[in-house]
């Protein structure tokens, strides 16, 4: 990537998003900001240069997430989903699909969304949405519970079962057979829509509209679960929140008694330390360093994984926004410039989306513990009537 591209996106995020939000309702689709990001090349960052993109490194793409996370999470979500889908089309698309879509995706003329999750589904093999071939055409039936940018995306990559494969169908949401549900009420991540999408006999071309062609299985790619973008977004938000709190608290510090100044400094130090560790974790993910020569074997330095970084940074962000709001007092909760409140509400979603932190932690624990030998003495507890009724 060229540094100036990233610099321009950083400048946009720091100078244009705040004034835009001050002048527009937070729950309105930010078309002017999306157009500016397209002009700045953000939508083409993960598209190869031969298709008109910037082919930016993984690190620089993460930095886009960081800058937009500083500014406004919904915009970061829209762009990072699109960039992941650029990679999917680039890696799995047929030559015709790459030719057809990547240029338009790079220019931001075709913004993509992804519809994978169905409530209660933990593995692609359990998906209930079906792609069924009927001679020369195929049809899609089912529903997806939460789709970011459902209302404004030009195409939605819908993950469905077809025989034993999890396939990706490129759906035009404006065609018959697609119903976009009402906006889902939520505390944050407003502006970019979030809705259920249902498919009833949606007809498509089984070769042209299935990523990689009919029966091309995406299971491995779905399970790979790179959650780097959520870490970048969390660190961006934490940096913005810390800066906000420092500015606000510093302004009023001189009027406080010496005792209170001391207490506030301590709390501010705690906040700054948490954000510093978040940044360190993120940098360890982006720039893994081999262990230094002579590292004693009893002090191994395992590489940072995207799962560990996501869990740590999105969870720590919850403390950071809460503690920053407390330090700013009434103005931390209610103020004309409610940037802190917005970060607070948006942050709540980050431990849940992508892959829930608890799911990632369970996998990390499983790796630590290794396979468990079957124990013939172990018994499966019989559910009591109370636990049975709770589960139903
Ligand atoms: C704002 C927002 C935007 C979204 N955008 C999209 C989108 O664009 N496209 C899309 O496809 N999806 C999207 N989603 C869906 C999102 O990715 C899922 O909600 C998320 O992956 C969690 O799945 P679930 O809701 O089915 O939770 P569940 O799988 O039901 O999990 C709920 C909780 O149960 C516990 N749990 C479940 N499984 C385990 C386990 N194995 N180990 C330990 N604990 C466990 C955890 O505490 C977990 O948080 C979005 C959701 C939100 C809220």
Give the arrangement of secondary structure elements:
Layout: H1 3-15, H2 17-23, H3 31-39, H4 58-71, H5 73-92, H6 95-107, E1 112-115, E2 130-134, E3 137-148, E4 155-162, E5 165-171, E6 178-180, E7 194-204, H7 219-224, H8 228-253, H9 258-286, H10 306-327, H11 330-333, H12 339-347, H13 357-369, H14 385-391
Parallel strand pairs: 1-4
Antiparallel strand pairs: 2-3, 3-7, 4-5, 6-7
Helix pairs in contact: 1-4, 4-5, 4-8, 5-6, 8-9, 8-10, 8-12, 9-10, 10-12, 10-13
Flavin-adenine dinucleotide binds at residues 81, 113-117, 119-120, 122, 146-148, 189, 194, 349, 352-353, 355-356, 358-359, 362.
Name the helix and strand elements from N-terminus to C-terminus, one letter apiece.
Answer: HHHHHHEEEEEEEHHHHHHHH
Report the strand count.
Answer: 7
Query: What best-fitting shape do the alpha-carbon axes yield?
Result: globular
CATH class of the largest domain: Mainly Alpha
Low-confidence stretches are 382-392
Main structural class: alpha+beta
- Architecture (CATH level 2) name of the largest domain: Up-down Bundle
Largest sheet: 4 strands, antiparallel
Number of helices: 14
CATH fold-level topology of the largest domain = Butyryl-CoA Dehydrogenase, subunit A, domain 3
As a percent range, the share of strand residues is 5-15%
Query: How many separate domains make up the residues?
Result: 3
Radius of gyration: 23 Å
Which sequence of strands runs across the widest sheet? 2-3-7-6
First-to-last CA distance:
52 Å
